[in-house]
């Protein structure tokens, strides 16, 4: 279980870095914010890429699949806290399904040959 909790923490931080970085581009283009928003956004996206390499997975594709489940949950939390859009029952059901899949991928006894 320590692997599960440390992975959730790592992927949550990774998702926050990616979402913040992408949001800076969203804010610049869609919300007409100053292009200077791209500087911290680009740094945040670089942090995202670095954090993803710290994944406990030996395979990039598996790391991305694990990350995807966490990313979906954190995206809905971001939407709720930053954009004030409360997730509905369908958001929660879909995120739960994705998170369950990510947990199976993380905890399964994969064949490491």
TrEMBL record:
The chain crosses the membrane at residues 35-52, 64-83, 89-108. It is a multi-pass membrane protein. Keywords: Cell membrane, Membrane, Transmembrane, Transmembrane helix. Pfam families: UPF0060 (PF02694). Signal peptide: none annotated. The keyword Cell membrane applies. The keyword Transmembrane helix applies. It comes from the Bacteria. It is found in: Cell membrane. Its main location: membrane. Belongs to the UPF0060 family. NCBIfam families: PRK02237.1 (NF002586). This is YnfA family protein.
């Amino acid at each position: 279980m320590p692997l599960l909790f440390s992975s959730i923490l790592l992927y949550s931080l990774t998702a926050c870095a990616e979402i913040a970085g992408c949001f800076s581009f969203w804010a610049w283009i869609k919300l007409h914010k100053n292009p200077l928003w791209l500087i911290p956004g680009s740094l945040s996206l670089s942090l995202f890429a670095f954090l993803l390499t710290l994944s406990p997975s030996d395979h990039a594709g598996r790391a991305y699949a694990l990350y995807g489940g966490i990313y979906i949950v954190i995206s809905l939390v971001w939407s709720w806290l930053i954009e004030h859009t409360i997730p509905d029952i369908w958001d929660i059901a879909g995120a739960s399904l994705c998170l369950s899949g990510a947990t199976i991928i993380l905890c399964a006894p994969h064949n490491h040959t």
